[in-house]
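Q: What residues go here?
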């Protein structure tokens, strides 16, 4: 009989399973691990997206079906949760559909007298050397050789992950228990919802060779070291063969809509980046954090209405255009923002409409990447504003980092800016001190440019005015 694919197996033994396109990709990657093609695999998945069902229930049952001599260990943050996974695997092995697919993989029946072991933490495969263990973090596996380790959520919640003591204990347990029970052909699967940048996955990324999994050919010929696949709840990165969603698309729209995810992002952008996007950052590693002041009403005395625009450097970047007013004390109040990855023919209109709507009289456009043509197009739509362009020659990293304190001290946002401009808000409040760790610099670059030009009279002068 033909061996079923992992997805076929899942639908056979779990016919009521609810899945989406991403599960097909997820299961295909898990199957490559289950068949021994991938030896070291890290997968990060948002909460409530079927992560554990695939990796810690269906996969061990499938692997024991393929090879009933395997010795598999499932580990989690608590022995109770690990045992729950073990019991669910046992129940799957007992269903008639499983027996029809894998008749050689059998376990002791409940209440049956047998020399084979079956407890909530350990079950043996009858007439084979295979076993399934479960263990909580910091638990012991003394004397047990392990062929397959599945590590599913070694941190219970943010409180545990944010504890240096818990993280260090987890690191020690992984080194002294997991690694010491493995042999030359052992496999490791780590499936997490990320909580902290210095969790076990962060440690492995910093100290071992880890390759991002983006193409199916990487599964057929895995590189040395670890493969890492990160499923973002809302697609922020560029489409890949494995995750071909367009930017902004939710991972599982049927269960977690874009609107629901955006509301979660607005509530706590730092936590959202960590748990739902797989991009953790500690508060201490943020450049701005939530340190921006906010306002309810604009000052009565306004000395300037200005705009600063930076066009997108690449197709993946954001065009960032910020309108603002200044008071006599040189405080800068942001009044409106266009933050978009739409093409220029769209953003030209959006920026021009914003300049007209806010009665802005002076706008500066960086000319580094098509800015001069953009400025001309905007000027044709804004008869009352003076549109100029200039060349920005300063080093972006040095400018952003050295002006960060001034940005948070002098730039003031509307109280509802998190909901008005959610991407702009998230990219600023989650911007990291380690410059190269940031994917997008557009929002930080524009706020830096505003304080440079308004407060420090940046030496980069205007190249020209349209009107």
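A:
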């Amino acid at each position: 009989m033909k061996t079923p694919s992992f997805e076929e197996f899942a639908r056979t033994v779990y016919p009521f399973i609810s899945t989406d396109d991403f599960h097909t990709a997820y299961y295909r990657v898990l199957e490559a691990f289950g068949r021994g093609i991938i030896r070291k695999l890290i997968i990060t998945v948002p909460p409530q997206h079927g992560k554990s069902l695939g990796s810690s229930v269906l996969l061990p049952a499938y692997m024991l079906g393929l090879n009933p001599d395997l010795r598999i260990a499932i580990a989690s943050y608590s022995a109770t949760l690990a045992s729950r996974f073990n019991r669910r695997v046992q129940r799957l092995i007992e269903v008639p559909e499983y027996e029809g697919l894998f008749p050689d993989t059998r376990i002791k029946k409940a209440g049956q007298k047998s020399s084979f072991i079956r407890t909530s933490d350990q079950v043996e495969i009858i007439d084979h050397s295979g076993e399934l263990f479960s263990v909580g973090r910091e638990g012991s596996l003394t004397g047990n050789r392990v062929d397959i380790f599945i590590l599913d959520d070694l941190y219970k919640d943010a409180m545990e992950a944010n504890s240096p003591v818990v993280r260090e204990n987890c690191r020690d347990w992984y080194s002294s228990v997991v690694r010491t029970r493995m042999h030359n052909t052992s496999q490791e699967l780590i499936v997490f919802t990320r909580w902290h940048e210095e969790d076990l996955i962060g440690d492995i990324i910093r100290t071992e060779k880890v390759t991002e999994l983006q193409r199916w050919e990487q599964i057929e010929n895995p590189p040395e070291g670890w493969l890492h696949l990160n499923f973002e709840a809302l697609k922020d990165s560029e489409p890949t063969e494995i995750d071909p969603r367009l930017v902004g698309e939710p991972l599982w729209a049927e269960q977690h809509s874009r609107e629901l995810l955006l509301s979660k992002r607005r509530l706590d952008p730092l936590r959202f980046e960590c748990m739902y996007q797989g991009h953790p950052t500690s508060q201490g590693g943020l450049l701005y954090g939530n340190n921006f002041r906010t306002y309810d009403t604009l000052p009565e005395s306004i000395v300037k209405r200005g705009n600063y625009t930076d066009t997108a450097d690449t197709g993946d970047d954001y065009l960032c255009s910020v309108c603002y007013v200044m008071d006599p004390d040189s405080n800068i109040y942001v009044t409106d923002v266009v933050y978009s990855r739409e093409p220029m023919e769209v953003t030209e209109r959006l920026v021009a409409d914003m300049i007209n709507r806010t009665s802005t009289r002076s706008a500066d456009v960086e000319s580094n990447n098509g800015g001069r043509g953009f400025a001309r197009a905007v000027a044709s739509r804004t008869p009352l504003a003076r549109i100029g362009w200039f060349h920005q020659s300063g080093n972006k990293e040095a400018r952003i980092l050295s002006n960060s304190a001034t940005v948070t001290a002098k730039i003031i946002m509307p109280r509802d800016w998190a909901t008005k401009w959610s991407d702009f808000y998230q990219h600023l409040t989650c911007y990291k001190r380690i410059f190269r760790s940031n994917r997008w610099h557009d929002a930080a670059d524009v706020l830096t440019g505003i304080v440079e030009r308004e407060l420090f009279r940046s030496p980069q002068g205007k190249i020209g005015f349209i009107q």
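A: Context that may help when evaluating the design: The two ends are 78 Å apart (CA to CA). The CA atoms of residues 9 and 15 lie 10 Å apart.
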